Amino acid sequence: MSKTNVIEWTNAGPDDILWVYPYEDIRWGSVVVVHEYETAVFMRDGKVYDVLNPGRHTITTQNIPLLTRAYRLVMGYGETPFKATIVFISLKQFRGRFGISSRVRISPNALYTTELQAFGDYWFRVADPVLFLTQIAGAVKSLTTQDVSNFIRSFLSELLMQELSKRSATDVYTNLEEVTRRIKADVVAEAFAQRGLELIDLKMGGVSLPLLEKMEKEDPTYGLPLLIAIQKGEEDQVLQIVKTVESMRALGKSPGAGIMGALFAIPQMLGAQPVQPAQPSQPAQPTQPAQKSYADRLRELKKMLDDGLITQEDYDRVKKQILDEMSRG
Description:
Layout: E1 6-8, E2 18-20, E3 25-26, E4 31-34, E5 38-44, E6 47-52, E7 55-58, H1 65-74, E8 82-83, E9 85-90, E10 94-105, E11 112-126, H2 129-136, H3 145-164, H4 169-174, H5 176-193, E12 197-208, H6 210-218, H7 223-232, H8 235-250, E13 264-265, H9 294-306, H10 312-328
Parallel strand pairs: 1-4
Antiparallel strand pairs: 2-9, 3-8, 4-7, 5-6, 5-9, 10-11, 11-12, 11-13
Helix pairs in contact: 3-5, 6-7, 7-8, 9-10
């Protein structure tokens, strides 16, 4: 675009969050046109100074007082043109889409996790332009709509993955709307507000368990019932199927063992060693698997709590079991 004395964001698209005026040499007396649902922010050296609300503004010392004061301290008033970056920010509502993958427990009391995928939509707007620029400017490669949109989507996805990892698959499937509402109200909305954004709404369009769905086709005898039990929130049935498959795997029987490929054991939570498939071509070895010390088991348990893999209730229950074993030993 050619440089004129009228500074205006023209041809803004419906998905454009912001636009940076391409020239930094600003003349006193230039006119800045700010449309409805926009704001114009004056920056210099990465610092935010003045904000212009919707209207037609002639650049004077009255409407950019902070920037004027900064220039007086450095070189005195009157230099024209002066250096500044003008960022136009849209205050309209925007819609984004997300798709995430996180590891979750298959049920609240199960000692196995699996992969959970979720997708959905979110709606947001810039509520505090100054805070928004302050928080976002240093976190993106460039102040463009694409980079800012990617940052917001990645930021939301990370929050959702962290929160979903604290929940079980049975809980997510049976209470998807409530889980989404809690995550939005308790975590995401506040995190957005700290970056000058308002999270208007968050909706999960659906969730899936891709590894279990794959095993459900390969092992319909146990994979399908396990998947259905998780989707219905039937924890007792989930635990019973897993216990059955664990027993068959320990005996070297193949039926049902395939679904274990879709599950990840929480490491040595109770000090038990992971079960290895039987090797029929090798003679059985009478050697006893090495057991972890009580101290190691307690340390691992505490780390799992700190990483959000287990709840405080799980931690207290298992810790008591380990301490009871120590007292009996």
